[in-house]
Each structure stands twice: as C-alpha cells, then as structure tokens.
Design a protein that fits this description.
The protein is of the alpha+beta class. The protein has two helices and six strands. The longest helix is centred in the last third of the chain and has 12 residues. The two termini are 15 Å apart.
Length: 91
C-alpha cells in the first residue's frame, strides 16, 4: 500500500498523491476533509454522523461536491478515507 504524502499548505496540513491534494486537516472545521470522487465512498462518508460536504466559502457558493468533511469523532476512519482518496487520484 502506498500512503499519500503529507505536506503543509497555509493553515492546512494536506495529503497529496502525485502532486494532487486529496485531503487535509481543516483547522476551521477541526476535522479532516477528503476528496472522494467515488460515489459509493462519498455516500458512505456522508452517512457518518456530523459529516457534510465541504464549503470553504461559508455558504457564499455551492459546497464542493466531491469533498467531504469527516469530524474527529470518526478519526478511526481517516486512514481508510485517505487511502480511498489517494487511490482514486491515481486513475
């Protein structure tokens, strides 16, 4: 298994795969945010209590449809979600 590389960008600790951001920790949300392009993976993540689509605009624009905020209450799922996000970025 190849794990994504962690980098720091502005106020985010980001997860990148092949130079593309696939996740990161949002200080504003106090949660991890993952790009889940696979519909099944995204729906499963959104089914977690407190999870929601990421909206960096604060409601001024539509939420980012592939990016899911996963609260710290589900930290045990973060590694799996990061792997799913990184695997999808390879395609």
């Amino acid at each position: 298994m190849i794990l994504p590389r962690r980098t720091t960008t502005s106020s985010w600790a980001t997860i990148k795969r092949s130079g593309k951001m696939v996740g990161g920790f949002s200080n504003d949300e106090g949660a991890m945010v993952f790009k889940l392009s696979d519909v099944t993976a995204r729906e499963a993540a959104l089914a977690l209590d407190g999870a929601h689509l990421f909206d960096p605009s604060g409601g001024r624009r539509a939420a980012m449809k592939e990016w899911v905020v996963v609260p710290a209450a589900h930290a045990d799922k973060w590694a799996d979600l990061a792997a799913q996000a990184a695997a999808k970025s390879e395609r």
